[in-house]
Amino acid sequence: MNSQVDSRHRSSKRYTLLTGATGLVGRYLMRDLLLKGHKLAVLVRPTKQQMVRERIEGILQMWEGNLGHRLPRPVLLSGDVTQANLGLSPKQLSWSEKFLDQIIHGAAVLKFQSASRELEPWKTNLGGTQHVLDFSKRCNIRDFHYISTAYVCGEREATVYENELAVNQTFRNDYEVSKFEAEQLVRDFDCFESKTIYRPAVISGDSQTGYTSTYHGLLLYLRLMAMLVPEQTKNADGVIETPISLPIEGDEPRNVVPVDWVAKTICHLVRTPEAHGRTYHLVPDRCTSAREVIEYCYKYFHSDGVKFCGADAERTADSELAEKLFENTSIYASYETSDPHFDKRNVSRFAGHLDCPSIDEEMIFKLIDFGKQNRWGKEKEAAPKVVRWIESHLTEIALAAQKMMGALRINGTDRIFKFGLDIHGPGGGQWQLLANEGRFDVTPGLPDDSSPVLKLNDIQINDLLMRHDSEEMDRSPAEDTKDAINWTGPLETVITENPQPNQ
Length: 503
Fold this sequence. Notes:
Strand content: 15-25%
Distance between the termini: 46 Å
Strand order of the largest sheet: 3-2-1-4-5-6-11
Largest sheet: 7 strands, parallel
Number of helices: 14
Helix content: 25-40%
Radius of gyration: 26 Å
Shape: globular
Structural class: alpha/beta
């Protein structure tokens, strides 16, 4: 992975496909890329409860509530990485071949053991990666980004370098092997001008808010402590006693990184062409330890009683509390006594200005507080609230826009014109519309040429549609739009006001 191919040929008018957008890292990546103005498409599976657009809309409305302003909507592709051609329809395949030129493949399954290579994690992690690579070749993708894991290193004691992969290492579980073999597929695939690999360590929640959508690794331990510690007996001083003997020294380094930093760093590197073609260890600047985390939890829960017995001790439960803890964390037992030292010189060179927040007392408190508020994953995410899905009203919008834009003589005629529609906020999306004497062709995504782009938010487009329905659009364009739209020229329409999203 020492390729220095310059990917600056990539047009900002083309689209990037993101897989895994509903996962923890994926939803942060989707937010960060959209905030940077990246033209994004996402591959998403429908569920029994929600359609694809509802799944993505719910995530984006959550971000809008946090940010206080509206976001653009990505192009939605309903599909599945475990299927050939990603399970896309012929129309979606045709669109992909025409509009995509970059892929960020992040879809993965965190399952440690499997009864068969036909099942998870192999089905998604390895088979899904092969399908994405085949799809990339079909679409002539030139720039490929793959989210691997730092633990493709397997069981290692020496420093793990970013340019290494296969060094005859042994592995702890099927998850590590599936990701190792998937990364090998990516490295061996020779149809790209540039391929970039990201290897995050153990991912925790948000360093600022404690938010997470899944509970693995450190978050599983915090969940168990939050559930079990308050049930234990208090001593005469009011301190909760937690008699647990751990078979570790307690000071072994732990490579844990907050999800917001992981996504911010990947977003920066994706958007930095000179950084492409390398492998990046997304690991902390300063590791944490079990002793530190437990001491933070002592303070949070007002507890005490954990003993560190050394790595040679047996993993023996000497209390009911210890028995429950060991039973529920057995899948992580092989990680408890060692964690490699990861070289991160590529990250330091190209993203060194993005400091990785340390897992400190304040962050542990935030992670526990969010987990309690979220009922440790049992709290359902809010259903999206949408006044109207704009895709169901594109003909009406085209008619309304034709009156405004035609009268302004954009493209020199009011009979044939093409324009982009970029609607931010609930129910929004991105399309291009070609109007030809009353007939309209609609294509997902914004134009990749100099056609005008009409940018509105959901409140403004709903107002436009209401006025069109009541036949008030016969007034002059200046009167119709002067309070909402600032016409900056023939190529783009920019909205000057951005009302707060509905709560």
